[in-house]
Amino acid sequence: MDRRTANAVVKCLEIDVDFYRELTIFLMKKHTKILQDDLEWLTNSLNDEQAFLMKSRSLEDKRLALFKGLGIEDRKLRDLAAEAPEDYKPKIRMLSDQLTELIENITEINKETTEIVKRKLDNEKAIVDQTGIVNKPETYNRNASKIAGGTSAAKAFRNV
Q1: Cβ contact 95:20 at 8 Å
Q2: Does 99 have pLDDT greater than 50?
Q3: How many angstroms separate the CA atoms of 33 and 122, rounded?
Q4: Is pLDDT above 80 for 68?
Q5: Fewest CB atoms less than 10 Å from the CB: which of 33, 53, 84, 94?
Q6: What 3-state DSSP class applies to 8?
Q7: How many CB atoms lie within 10 A of CB 62?
Q8: 89-131 and 3-35 are packed helices; what angle lies between their axes, rounded to 10 degrees?
Q9: CB–CB of 59/51 below 8 Å?
């Protein structure tokens, strides 16, 4: 690997590390807001999350194109550090380690967040099942005569 290629790899990795740091901060905040049941923040953050996803795809597409143009598309990051000129090796190794750690953190945050959401949904489902909210409610016509069976919502909530 020549100096020009090593320099391009360093700049690409710096951009990726900066992006994934921002994404980690966003995901940690999202995780906290899920724990707090802050539905307003979560709803308002959907556009931000979509922007992160789009930027992530864009960065990966650019990285792939750059590495292909440099003739290093089949190399792993740790291999690139080994092939770099001596004065670039520490920087590429450091950036590679940072990027790996950030991606591992993001994976763990997403795993924990998914588990929390699953538990919360399971709890909500149990409450709905227990109260019978999804059962057909009693329906009445204009004369206040019952026309359909089911459990009234008021009765279901009294049972809880």
Answers
A1: no
A2: yes
A3: 18
A4: yes
A5: 53
A6: helix
A7: 13
A8: 20
A9: no
